[in-house]
Design brief:
Blueprint (H helix, E strand, L loop, with lengths): L2 H11 L12 H13 L14 E5 L5 H9 L3 E6 L2 H13 L6 E5 L12 E6 L8 H11 E14 L6 H10 L4 E2 H10 L2 E8 L3 H21 L4 H20 L3 E10 L2
Parallel strand pairs: 1-2, 1-4, 2-3, 4-5, 5-6
Antiparallel strand pairs: 5-8, 7-8
Helix pairs in contact: 2-3, 8-9
Bound molecules: S-adenosylmethionine.
Amino acid sequence: MNEQELMGLIYEIFDPSMPRLGPGDRDSTKKALGAALAALPDGVHAAASTKLRILDVGCGNGAQTLRLAGLTKASIVAVDNHQPYLDELQRRAEHEGVAHRVRTRCVDMADMGLDEKSFEVIWSEGALYRMGFREGLEVCHRLLVPRGVMAVTELTWLRPDVPAECRDFFASEYPVMTDTDTNVATIKGCKYEMLSVFTLPSDAWISDFYAPLERRLSAMREKYASDPERLAVVDSCQKEIDMYGKYSDAYGYVFYVMRRRG
Ligand SMILES: C[S@@+](CC[C@H](N)C(=O)[O-])C[C@H]1O[C@@H](n2cnc3c(N)ncnc32)[C@H](O)[C@@H]1O
């Protein structure tokens, strides 16, 4: 299987019809948004302002984009590099009556082509790592207005004594994973102040992500029963799910909510 075929398979597994494409849940998005908006000059009233501008980086099919649209009157720019996800987001936005406030851009998050200081709020759930946590913070710092706010989830070690099997798995899957204190120090070093830090509940991994993903993996196993290469990819996705089942107390997605200094 070449690189293109592999990407095709990955996108087939992580189909736009999934409820969402990474861990997250509606309550956590609301909680992080509350902490973020409260730090803006007009506080919680910012939600009601049609002048509020939100950027959602790595939006996928838009689970959190639509939640943000539902909780505010903001205009939202939603960025992803896979057009079928953006098409699905547009369909869902139309269904929810918010399409006029959601504009999608199919671009690389490292080069979004957006004006500096043009967003009061920047969001990124389970995606900023694609350009690197620090690099993502730096890129978004430039796009935020002074004292603008940002909320991002990042895969994080939750305890120091991580079992060897788990540590070995992430040594290849996400070797740069670190702990909350280190991420907070990185955030502060990138000229933000911290507003809130909390860990996603474990159900945020299951209900809308791993449970539907497992159903897709079963279907893929049947479809590719005689294709060992594709089955190996399916198995590696299953391994990731099984890892979380065993070690959900050792790592998780942490919501980091921050404000641009200056
Ligand atoms: C784990 S998914 C999270 C999606 C969504 N935020 C959610 O929580 O459901 C990561 C998303 O980042 C997008 N992505 C990956 N690399 C990207 C890049 N370089 N530029 C823009 N988007 C990217 C993927 O297409 C995918 O939709």
